[in-house]
Design brief:
heterodimer; A: 186 residues; Rossmann fold; 7-stranded parallel sheet; two-stranded antiparallel ribbon; 6 helices; B: 275 residues; 3-stranded antiparallel sheet; 10 strands; 19% strand
Chain lengths: 186, 275
Amino acid sequence: MTKRRALIIGGSAGSLDVLLKVLPELNPNVQFPIIVVVHRKQGMDSLLTDLLSYRTVLKVKEAEEKEPILNGNIYIAPSDYHLLIERDFTFSLDYSEKVNYSRPSIDVTFQSAAEAYHDGLVCLLLSGSNADGVNGLITNNLFGGISLAQEPSSAQVSYMPEQAILRTNVNILKIEEMPAYINSIS
Amino acid sequence: MPYSGAISDEQTEILINDVLEHHGYDFTGYSRASLKRRISRLYNLDKHLSFAEFRYKTLNDAVYFKHFVEGITVNVTEMFRDPSFYKVLREHILPSLNTYPFIRIWLAGCSTGEEVYSMAILLEELNLLNKSLIYATDINPSVLEKAGQGMFPLSQMKSYSENYIAAGGKRDFSSYYSANYSLAKFDPDLKNKMIFSTHNLVSDHSFNEFQLILCRNVLIYFDRSLQFNVLQLFDQSLENLCYLALGSKETIEFSPISSRYKRVGTEKIWRKTST
C-alpha cells in the first residue's frame, strides 16, 4: 500500500511572513494536502485565507469539520477551534480547553495527524514565541514521520524552533530551502 | 502504535463498548479523534496506573463514571460567545418571537450554563423574560448542578462584559451579578425562567415544541449520521416558522432537514419554512 502523505505547517508569531514567502514557490501539482495551523487573533479567518490565496495557485480554504482532506489543497485551521484528523482522513473540530494557551494548538493537530498518517506525515514548525508544536513533533517522530523546524536565526521569534531542536530530532531548514524541500516530498 | 500516556484505538473502542453496555451511554456516534484525545487526557489527568485499572473504575465505580462522562465531553463555554450571534438574537430573532403568547426555548448541551444566563439577560432586556421558559439540557448531571447555581468565575467578568457590549448590551453588565469572593453570583430572578434537566441527544426523544432551539458546538463532536439524527430530533421539536441556531462552524446543509429550512442572515441561524 502506498503511504498517504500530508504536510502540516505550524507557527506562531513571525510565521505569516514565512508562509507568504514559501507557499508561492510550491509546485502547482503538489501530490499531498498542506494543512496550516497558526496562532492568531479570533475572527480573522477569512483575512488569512484571502491573504494566502492571493499568493498561490493552489486552492486555499478554511478546514471544515467532516471535510475530506484532498491532495493539492491548502487548508487553514479556523481560529478558536482545535483541528484534528480522523482515521478516514477527514477533519474534526474541537472546542475544548486551550493547549499551551493556544486554540488551535499545533500539538493537537500534529498528534492526531501522526496517528492517522503514521510515517507519511511531514511536520514543519516555524517561528513562534511558545513551545506549542514540540510535543507534536515528538509524537510525529515516534510514528516515523519527518519533523522539520525553521532555522532559528532566520525566525522573527526563534523560541519555538529552538525548543524543537532542543527536545527532539528535526531537520533544520532556512526559509529559502523550504520550497525545494517541500517540492521534493514524494 | 502506542506512545507515552496515550490510549490506543482498540482501548478506545473497548471503553466505548463498556460504557454502552454497562451504563447505557452511547458514544459510538462520536468523532473518534476528539473522543480518543479526551479519553487519553482523562487517563493522564487521573494518573491511572494501567488501562485495566481505568477500565475497571469506569465500569464499576458509579461516582467515577460520572466524572468520566464529564471528562470526556467538552464543557468549555462562555457568556455571549460570538457577540455578533447574540446581536442578531437581540435585534431580530427574539423580537420576532414576541407575537407568540408564550416563548419556549431549548438550549441543548448547555454545559455549565453561561449561555443560559446570556439568553435570560437578553430576554429580560427585551421585556420577554416573563413569558419565556428556557429549557436547558445536558448529558452531564454535574454541569447542570453548576449551571443551576448561577455562579461563574469573577475573573471572567471583564471578558464577558466586553462580549455583552459587543452583542448590543446597553446596561452596566455588573448590575447582573454580585461579587462573592472569587465568584460572580448572578441575579436569582434570571433563574426563575430556567428549567435544567439531563437529556442525551443520542438516545432521548423530543420532549416539547419550541420556538427557538440553540445547540452550539455540540454537533462538531458527532459523526455525520449522528448529526443527522440529532438535526431530525430538533426538527421534530421545532414549531413551524421558528428558529434553529448552531455553532459558528456547524451547518444543517447536506442534511435531510435542510430543504425545509432557510438561512437567516450570515449567522448560523435557520428558520423552519415548512413541516
